[in-house]
Amino acid sequence: MTVSGALRKRTLLITLALAAVIVPAILSAVYLRGRAVRGLPYRDAFASADANEWSAFGGTWQISEGAMRNDSDERGAKLMTGSPYWKDYSFTSDLELLGKQGDAGLILRSSDEEPGVDSYRGYYVGLRSNDGSLVIGRADYGWIELATRSMPGGVHAFQWYHLKAVVNGCRITGYANEVPLGPIQTLSFNDPNCIMKGRVGLRSHSSGGVWKGLVVQALTGSDPQVSSPASSAVPVLLPYAIDDPVTMSQRESGFDPHDRDMISSNVPGISERSLPVETIGGLRSVRTENRTAMVRGTVILNSPRIYVQDATGGVAVMPAAETRLKVGDEVEVTGQVEVHDFSCIIRHARLRLLWAHAPAAPLAVTPTQAATGAFDSRFIEVDGSLAGQTAGQDKTTSLAISSSGQSFNAIVNLTRGNTILRNMTKGSLIRLRGVCVVDPQFTHNLTPFVLLVASSDDVEVLAGPPWWSVRNLAISGLIAITLSLLAYLLYLHARHWRLRAIVDERERIAHEMHDTLAQSFVGIGFQLQAISNNVPLTLPNINQQLDLACELVRHSHEEATRSLSTLRREFLELETLHSALHNFASRMVEHGTISVQLRVTGEDTATPYAVKDALFRIGQEAISNSLRHGNPSLLQISFDYAATTITMVIEDNGIGFDQTGDLRGFGLTGIRKRAQGISGVFHLFTGAGQGTRIEIVAPLPPRLTWLKANRLFLRDSRKGLSNGKAPKQNSYSYRR
């Protein structure tokens, strides 16, 4: 090789090595870059009541009038979506707080979310009503407040704001202004140990909130943070029960009666101050018609009815005017009490907010306990197996649940889509949290109670359907049968290969015996004949003995030749069983006076070689015994080929024999063993002077079906296990 050729080769190798490094690096960079912006820009579909891609961690999230709403004062409620690989982007939303003592806003670059206060890793940009400020913070399963700045005019509940959060590298920036044209407040912070990527989400703390117009866009400009949020149109106000958490009368608080009338009305003829506060559980003890009562409790459900409970029980509330309460609000209810057997309703109710609070925890009960009616209008938690689900009215789904012989229905409000419910399968073990109702309006007298579930977030799948269901058992059985069939087929192939090896070995031995033993008989015959020719005729005794010896050698040579021919595979493969046995008998009686007759019924189509070989040797022995001991004049050979059996009969008209005598030397023991080796049945009919009839009925292997193959495989396996080793077959068995 020349110097220039070696140089070119070295250059080519270096180029290939660089390409092997650079190309994967470029592809990885392109892939990571694409993953960082995949799914962007993102816009919510709340206007079409679709939020299947969002995951809730606490709170009571639901879509209402094209906006995502959390009617809960739970601390740290979160709703998450997006890709964990999003890096630099802006997140924009219109926002309304539903309480004066909390905050709400946007989560950025989040990961590892769990239910609980600050139980995630990411950034937060929001508005806080306590001190009227714009807040930037970081959560890492703990709260770190990074920066705050007061909003012009403060932050007020039930006022819409436009909020924009931007993350670019390690800089987090927030913009906020009051809708529609309030002054823009800007707040920025540079985190040296920043979180580089993560999902987006909504968050509220000690206050409910409403979000709409959500947009997430990837950053493309060189300095996109200098842009300001665009002005937003004034959203439709979502009315709330009472704008202030009050505990006094309207006159003392200075609250506008006009706003109060929007959500409640006075009970005619009743002074609120003249009524004592009763427990909810005590309402059922008095059954006076048109009785007015006052109770206090916590709101546990606000749709399709308002339900309030205290420590003693729960009650359905029918307000005189439309209202919107948050789950967890502490309220005072005044109205007319309607008592039923197991339930209670307060009609024409006046509601007064006492204070906002986090939602109450459910009471864990069994379906049997709930069916007694003791937990009517209470917030409970029950477990059961899903028996079915059907679509209901007004965006609801009805779940049929059963547990320990008790059945009930659960009505789930599809406030954020039905992804969880759609993915549940029949037979799944689920846990539901909702309000237990025994009112016939919901039960229709078909189930003892109905569970009203606020959203699909209150449905938790504990376990999938049990594996021993009918469908799974059928599939498992089908797989087991298939595997058993395959194993048995392999087993039959192995036995077939073994039989082939035996046949090949027999054929080899036959060839070797032909080359040695048979030729030796010929040599001995020639030698004896030569000796006989040289012996004088004056020695008759010696000549007679030599002639007898020559005859024995000739006879032995013929027998050896016949036996060797039967050892060869072609012997029974080239002709049928009955013709081979008939030819054998004809050769035996050749030049004699004995007549051989053959009768065949049916057709030999698929007789296994092992069965043919065994029957042929049984027939040889029977014919030899008949000619040697029976002195017959007629020998009959009969074959009956049936679908499942072969019947062979060897019969003569000789002298027969007594079966009670000594049967040694008749070869019957060998015949019986060979018949047993092919699972055949041996019959002997004879008597002194009555001839002899030998009948063999041999079964044919049936056509293999799945069930029969499985049964045979299991039977052979049990035999092998019971013996502690592989089952040993008879040397003549066709089942080898």
Automatic annotation (TrEMBL):
Membrane as a keyword of this entry, yes or no, is yes
Short name of any one Pfam family annotated for the protein: HATPase_c
Q: Which GO terms describe its molecular function?
A: hydrolase activity; phosphorelay sensor kinase activity; protein dimerization activity
User: What UniProt keywords apply to this chain's record, in alphabetical order?
Assistant: Kinase, Membrane, Transferase, Transmembrane, Transmembrane helix, Two-component regulatory system
- Give the protein's recorded name: Two-component system sensor kinase
Top-level division of the source organism's lineage: Bacteria
Q: Which InterPro entries match?
A: AL/BT2_dom, HATPase_C_sf, HATPase_dom, Sensor_HK_TwoCompSys, Sig_transdc_His_kin_sub3_dim/P
Where do the TM regions start and end?
473-492
Q: Where is the Histidine kinase/HSP90-like ATPase domain?
A: 610-702
Instruction: Quote the cellular component terms of the Gene Ontology held in the record.
Output: membrane
